[in-house]
Amino acid sequence: MKFAIIAAGEGSRLAQEGVKAHKPLVKVAGEFMIDRLIRIFTSQGASEIVVIVNENMPEVVSHMRQAEVARQQTACPLNITVKATPSSMHSFYELSRFLKDEPFCLTTVDTIFDETDFAAYISAFKASDKDGMMAVTDYIDDEKPLYVGTDQNMHITGFFDTPNDCHYISGGIYCLKPKAIQTLEDCMEAGLSRMRNFQRQLVKDGLELQAYRFGKILDVDHADDIQKAEKFLTGKI
Fold it and tell me: Which fold has domain 2-233?
């Protein structure tokens, strides 16, 4: 199973709020966010980790190139793409050429989650016969959450911009089988540009998606989110 990290965003809100480090190199609980994900993914038996980073962030590119070289001869190599993209879905598309031969897990670099929850999630996906398994949470601390409709068996029925009687929101972690790449390619051809539109199209295309509940998932979009993430990971919230 492969793992993929989208780390090509500009992180403009953090910069505007005085955070000097580019988002992938922001430290949470003493660890760069990008390094934390790589460590966790490696511990889950990743066959390869593919990452896209922004070409306009030389410090991030240098950090990742060094990591890529250091892991070339390991059981879990890194494959780095350097490119600025207009959206997360475009970044996913750039990585998709590496993801067509194995099931994979995709997330953005600023997603903060409990490692025990994540390990259970990956195990559940590996044992599942569904086309995808999406991380969801009932903890809402997002400016524009994507609400996830589910039936009584946690089968995903839709993705919505408004609550729509949903119990969960998307956690921004996606485990998918390679057949989902065709939906991504169709979305790109249609000019769609948001991950939530891709997720909606997965449902329209008839892919079977299961929701997997995490206790809490946070995104680091603002300076005060760093402190929230620190407290979460150290058990203080």
Answer: Spore Coat Polysaccharide Biosynthesis Protein SpsA; Chain A (3.90.550)
